[in-house]
Design brief:
- The chain has about 190 residues and is of the alpha+beta class.
- The chain has five helices and four strands.
- Helix content is about 75%, strand content about 5%.
- Strands 2-1-4-3 form a four-stranded mixed beta sheet.
Length: about 190
């Protein structure tokens, strides 16, 4: 925005100098006409001096106009570069948005597929176990935890030997302390 303001200010100065230049040229023409019709040597000399002053002022205005035009050209070049970088950034953002939307759609599909699998698996679970799971899930974020070093990994309650034996026979067991469902990675391995 500062660049645009600078460009507008340069344009105002250019317009002002152009107006001054026109006024000086008009004054110069009037002086030249007066010089052509003047018969008095003093008046002629004074008009020549005034014309020389006007010409000097015109030269200064022309130099100022050239400097302003150079500055304006540089500012316009910078503005084009800024606009190009903004456009490139907008394209990058649009590409990111498209990627994010694609990923979100993919994740939504995955969630729907997992929900279908969950519903299919839930039908295989006895109702009382499913109800217990729902109750525990409403209280804790991890209702199913692994057994680590023959203890519940959530509350570290040591499992009695009969519970460890039940884990190897793939029976559903619960911690006697925190009531979470327990599983063992060794129990899921096939026995040789």
């Amino acid at each position: 925005l500062t660049l645009l303001a600078m460009l507008k200010e340069s344009q105002k100065k250019t317009d002002s100098l152009e107006l001054d230049c026109k006024q000086l040229k008009s004054a110069e023409q009037l002086k030249k006409r007066a010089l052509d019709t003047s018969a008095n040597p003093k008046e002629y000399s004074a008009l020549e001096k005034e014309l020389a002053g006007l010409e000097l002022a015109l030269e200064q205005i022309t130099e100022s106009q050239l400097l302003l035009l150079d500055a304006k050209e540089y500012q316009e070049k910078e503005l084009r570069a800024v606009r190009a970088s903004i456009q490139a950034e907008e394209q990058r953002i649009q590409a990111l948005i498209a990627t994010q939307q694609s990923e979100a759609a993919s994740l939504t599909e995955q969630v729907l597929a997992l929900e279908e699998q969950w519903n299919a698996q839930q039908k295989l679970v006895p109702v009382e176990l499913a109800d217990s799971y729902i109750k525990i899930r409403s209280k804790v974020h991890n209702p199913v935890v692994p057994v680590v070093s023959e203890s519940c990994s959530a509350c570290f309650y040591p499992l009695p030997p009969q519970d460890m034996l039940s884990l190897t026979s793939k029976t559903v067991i619960r911690c006697r302390s925190c009531y979470r469902f327990l599983f063992s990675s060794e129990a899921t391995l096939p026995t040789a």
